[in-house]
Amino acid sequence: MSTNATGPTNSTMTWWQLSLLGVACTLGTGYFLGAGIGLTMSGASMLLMFILAAAGTYFVLDALIQMTGDNPQQGSFRTYAKIAFGRWAGFSCGWIYWGSQLMIVGSQLAALSLFTRFWFPTIPMWLFALIYASLGVGVILLGAEAFERSEHFFALIKVSALLMFLLLAGAAVLGWISGGLHPLSFPINGNTFIPSGLTGTWSSFIYAFYAFGGTEMMGLFALRLDKSSEAHKAGSIMILLLAILYIVSLFFVLTLLPLHALHDKKSPFQVSLESYPLPYVPHVFNAILIIAAFSTMVASLFAVTSILVALAKDHDAPFLFTRSTGKRQIPYPALGFTSGGMAAAVVLSLILPEELYTVMSTAAGLTLLFIWLVILLSSGRLLTRTTSNVVKRWAGILLILSAISGAAFHPTTRPGFFVSLIFILIIAAITYAVHFTWPKRAKKRC
User: Fold this and answer.
1) What integer pLDDT is reported at residue 440 of this predicted model?
2) Backbone angles phi, psi at 416, to 5 degrees
3) What are phi and psi of 359, to 5 degrees?
4) CA distances in angstroms from 362 to 5, 72, 83, 267, listed in the order given
5) Are 250 and 211 in contact (CB under 8 A)?
6) 3-class SS at 3?
7) Confidence at residue 10, expressed as pLDDT on a 0 to 100 scale
8) pLDDT for the residue numbered 350
9) Is 429 helix (H, G, I), strand (E, B) or coil?
């Protein structure tokens, strides 16, 4: 029997199950809502950003899967950083990832509240955030196998939602559905392809990458494959599937809607469907968006709890967090600590009801890209230096650095940039302070 952070499980996965789980962990409001923010900043040039982000994501996942194949580790990228650069890297990487996933949980809670207000506009966001946070913890308490089964189901629903949108949008473009409020036209002139100039397009790059956030979780689950050699196939197919769905669906959004009809507080897919006389479809799609956001939130909650347990086992967090009890071996102390962070996200949703999603999603995306950067740097020390590995590693590093730096130059992304920078500096300061105690602890254990 194998054991993970949220309970024991003796099941294994095929490559397509891993790929489906990757879709479940990745496809969420980072795309369904975050893509709309990017479109308002960069217009149709956002499609190019998604192509580049898909390539960068592939380079990161390729390096992670290679390291997993050479040296399987339950701590995944955090352990590889520790092996490559020392304990300080594993400590800081683990806590930065914990914070990143907690911010993703916060952004998902904000998105869930925004989507639910589509039906109940007078109810405050914080109440919805509290309800969804409680439900998310409930799913984790059911154990790892229940989590995986639910995520496979959610993945099918999310992919079906995009396919439904493509069918409806295609029917509208072909004239099979009439009555749209806007003329059909793909924005290809200078004023609409790059409406905010190169700076707007550059700064929107973070939202293209953020749509692929969660891909790194495949490293946490790849150890459970029936055939470890199929991990690369699972990752490649997952990224290719998402990239095609992302780009084609955004093409239809830009064809159905003018840029001025988009805004950052509603999904562009929802806005596209609302402009046609389809009385029930917007409600169905809104329900699917809620499922998508909830699924990604639960996946992030699972990941953040797993990382906290792994940190505790390496004595980089209070050892109390390793304790698991009950039939499903739930790590209640770790989950409780994470729930405290979720409670802070609920409070933020009360204090910043309108601005929360953009700030939290930008900050979460940037801190996650920092982790991806560490994955690529670790692979440079741990993998065989072939020409292919070197080219992919440096291409990925340049793409990630471009997305990170671009976030500092636009008023939409700048607040999230500074939030992520402050958070990383705080973890760096804590790492520096704590590392003085490590030799003493080592002596005590001896």
Assistant:
1) 56
2) -65, -35
3) -65, -45
4) 28, 31, 29, 16
5) no
6) strand
7) 45
8) 61
9) helix
